[in-house]
Amino acid sequence: MSECNHDCASCSQGDCASRKIEKLKPNENTTIKHCFAVISGKGGVGKSLVTSLLASAMNKRGHSVAIIDADVTGPSIPQAFGLKGKMATSDETCIYPVLSKHGIKIMSANLLMPDDESPIIWRGPMIAGFVNQLYTDVCYGDVDYMFIDMPPGTGDVPLTIFQQYPIDGIIIVTSPQELVSMVVTKSINMAKMMYIKTVGIIQNMSYIKCPKCAEKVRIFGDENSIKRIEKTGIKVIGELPIDPALASFVDKGEIEQYKADELEDVVTILEKFEK
Length: 275
Hints:
By secondary structure, this protein is an alpha/beta fold. Helices cover 29% and strands 19% of the residues.
């Protein structure tokens, strides 16, 4: 490549012949069978929520599950699982994740800080290095399914994870607005450029279910929003409603108690997904 500056860490060209970046290897006390990244083109669409629900659903099926909260400057996974005030432990060999009430192994920047309201004010390279350490320096033990809760957009952290994590595929979270559909396309195109498989799209806040007649009321758009998204060639594999009960479970740190029937088919797809 005539324009190559040989700085592979800053490059998004997945098939470059000069690329020497090797995939990260987990701690010697860790084995990870499957790894999925949950991403979104923009913030506020429910990416962390979907990550938490998928991990909980997979755990309920008897799988060993772990979550890496890679949204370093805006971590929210510990709150959803009721881990506020908890801290990860360590010894001379490695760091140990914090276990949720039902045994999900969770690692987040907030679990390494005594004050979870203190901001993390780091530049991109430092954050990217820290995200790599969440994978390599933590003893997760035997993990069937690992979910990576990504920060929004297509910046340093997504690029680092796409290049260096051994990802099976990505799940894209969106909401039913035209603007969001446009931004989602950017994430899809980034994954294609990095030769990462896309499992599918989950549309959050898709509708409200009438408590009297169970009719789906699409307050943010009609079913055409799904058709617009699927023009990208990626299928919508799940929809989540606006549910006040779900918000209550998250606020109380009891997301594992919520049964997301709408995601059962998605979990089955992940169980059958081939890298």
